[in-house]
Request: fold
Amino acid sequence: MTLKDFDFYNELSDDEKDLIHKNLKPVKLEKGVTLFYQGDITNDILLLQKGKVRVYIQGEGINEITLYNLNSYEQCIVNTTSTLNKTPTIGSAVTATPIEAYMLNRDIVKKLMQENQNYQSYIFSLLTLRLDTLARVLESVKFKQLDERIYEYLREHSNDGQMIITHDEIANIIGSTRVVISRVLKKLEREELIELSRGKIKVI
Reply:
């Protein structure tokens, strides 16, 4: 077990590294596993080694809005805040791909926060990064038309112009319904901005 690829790891003392390794719990999960639900109080903190986790909020209806995606060698700030402060999570988290990760209990992370300034700086840098992401999400929801938001998302996340994704998945990411998303995608196709096929979208 090692965390050597995490930004904070090399700044830890040998004693701190030893403490972490004695308390790490490795986990492997398949795609689609819920790590915590909105309103849960988490007890352990996830350190993602491989894969991607989607963190999202859900209103009173069925619509979801993605807050951010957690990538390899990152620590979830929603999870961390809930665990350290014993407060309900502001969103839910689900594995977007199969993942390999470690779980670290609250006491160890709290000790690192109190005693290691480099680890504190790491956490604050994550907060800054996520606040910036949330600001862009809010800006997009408030000021941009739905077709513009969808097209921008497809452009940013396509691979060589191709993207394998369902209308349901886009609805969850954007914060809308499948029916609305399908209608907007058809509009974008008529405007010759995308090409639709089963489970796949080509960005032109």
In short: The chain has a mean pLDDT of 85. The CA atoms of residues 30 and 85 lie 29 Å apart.
